[in-house]
Design goal:
The structure holds 2 protein chains of 2 kinds. By secondary structure, chain A is mainly β. Chain A contains no helices and 12 strands. In chain A, strands 2, 5, 6, 10, 11 and 12 form a 6-stranded mixed beta sheet that branches. A 4-stranded antiparallel beta sheet of chain A has the order 3-9-8-7, with no helix packed on it. Classes of the chains: A mainly beta, B mainly beta.
Chain lengths: 112, 115
């Protein structure tokens, strides 16, 4: 089946330093799934941060960006300069490109 | 703007007792409603997607049995039974299937704790 792997359960980054949260995926139901990053800020509900539905494209939002790399099946989340307000739990996710409705989530990475 | 209203938000559930959860959709532009569970290890897992009133599905997972019902165009219910470990159930909605419409909007969750 389809799966998403986030290897770090928690990362600690000093303010103004750069961030990368790793995400790799395995999609057996379709070659090119749609890829998402969701975020949960403290005290808030889970919400979409950014999405990319075309392999090779980059998505960006709130200073974060992620590139859909079909060669390495990765969708790492990056930010050049982290702020305290970025502290949250980040989830990488995928859906099948057409006809599918189930979203498959990674296990989440907490940013401190 | 809140798209989904879930209740109850928290519930203590005596072992062996079932609990009924409710989710109300506030915007008909996102009619695809789903349930996701988040276990104690924080893993989010899809349970059901129900589109039409009258749709029902059952599922047994480690730690709980589920019965989901799409009651009306705006109401989704979930019965949780035989729960052995606590979990949080999230209602979601989306505009459709796949592509950009795969984007989910989450409710605030119903946190269940086993007594």
């Amino acid at each position: 089946g389809d799966s998403v792997t986030q290897t770090e359960g928690q990362v600690t980054v000093s303010e103004s330093k750069s961030l990368i949260i790793n995400c790799t995926y395995s999609a057996t139901s379709i070659a090119y799934p749609n890829l998402f990053w969701y975020v949960r800020y403290p005290g808030e509900g889970l919400q979409l941060l950014l999405k990319v539905i075309t392999a090779g494209q980059k998505g960006s939002s709130r200073g974060f960006e992620a590139t859909y790399n079909k060669e390495t099946t990765s969708f790492h989340l990056q930010k050049a300069s982290v702020q305290e307000s970025d502290s949250a739990v980040y989830y990488c996710a995928l859906t099948p490109g057409t006809g599918g409705y189930k979203v498959v989530f990674g296990s989440g990475t907490r940013l401190l | 703007v809140t798209l989904l209203e879930q209740n109850p938000r928290w519930r203590l559930v005596p072992r062996g007792q079932a609990v009924n959860l409710r989710c109300i959709l506030k915007n008909s532009q996102y009619p695809w409603m789903s349930w996701y569970q988040q276990d104690l290890q924080k893993q989010l897992q899809w349970l059901f997607t129900l589109r039409s009133p009258g749709d029902k599905e059952v599922k047994s997972l480690p730690g709980a049995d589920y019965l989901a019902t799409r009651v009306t165009d705006t109401e989704l219910r979930l019965q949780v039974a035989n729960m052995s470990q606590g979990r949080t159930l999230y209602c979601t909605c989306s505009a459709g299937l796949g592509g950009l419409t795969g984007q989910l909007y989450f409710g605030e969750g119903s946190k269940l704790t086993v007594l």
